[in-house]
Design goal:
There is one protein chain. The chain is mainly β. It is built from 2 helices and 6 strands. It has a 4-stranded antiparallel β-sheet with strand order 2-1-3-4, with no helix packed on it. The chain has a two-stranded antiparallel ribbon with strand order 5-6.
């Protein structure tokens, strides 16, 4: 059966993985969820984050794309980054400064 995707995103760092909720039949999903919220701020700038963008299916989930990103000081300052796939799909991640130790980056 072919139809709109049922996408979700998974983020992994240092052996910890968290995934978003599945957005059913949505080719332009928007998530308002926190992933890896307890990650120390300094870790964002030095530890690669593995990202997977998948389509949930009844039998086996289909990989839309995956990759590894390391956050730059500019992305931290700008509040986020896009994760682009070679097939035109992408996911936008917003980074929020919290009291959990996100470093302050000069403009």
């Amino acid at each position: 059966f072919f139809g709109p995707t049922d996408p979700y995103i998974c983020a992994s760092i240092a052996g910890i993985e968290q995934c978003s909720m599945v957005q059913s039949d949505d080719s332009s999903p928007r998530w308002n969820e926190e992933l890896l919220a307890d990650l120390g701020g300094d870790s964002l700038l030095v530890t690669p984050i593995e990202l997977r963008y998948e389509d949930s299916d009844v039998d086996t989930d289909d990989l839309i794309c995956n990759g590894i990103v390391t956050i730059t000081p500019a992305e931290l300052h700008d509040g986020g980054f896009n994760f682009d796939c070679n097939n035109g799909s992408y996911a936008r991640f917003d980074l929020r400064n919290t009291d959990r130790g996100t470093p302050t980056v000069a403009p």
